[in-house]
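Teaching soon. Got one?

===
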Amino acid sequence: MKKKKLPTNENKGVEFDPEVLRMYMMGATNPGFSNKNRIDHAEDVIDLHLEQQHVGSGKIAPHDALFHQMEEFEKALDKAIAAGKFEFRVVHGFGKGKLKEEIFKLLDKHPQVKTYSNEYHSRYGYGSTIIYFY
């Protein structure tokens, strides 16, 4: 990107990159460093509702939807474990309970999962499960 000079007299000869300035203004502490894929920035909550995911346009088959949701859940679970999280919440919603059932099957045999609970949460009701790790 082309660097531009500031027009004021006190900043004569100072160059800046408009893209870097935009990133600083958007809250980046170091725009040259991307932490998108860093493990220690794993989320504490994942929402598996399809409208929250980037599934694409149009309807998808229920089997494909469940597969996609489970894939996203497994990625987020692995990332939370790798980041050393002690707990992790998955929002699966109510529906027919198929997604929750599949998540529980996976959690039952996962070696890093200490326990999990589907208790009431003020924000998600009974549509979420908290998972605790060893």
Notes: The helical segments are 18-25, 62-82, 98-109. The CA atoms of residues 65 and 113 lie 25 Å apart. The longest strand covers residues 128-133.
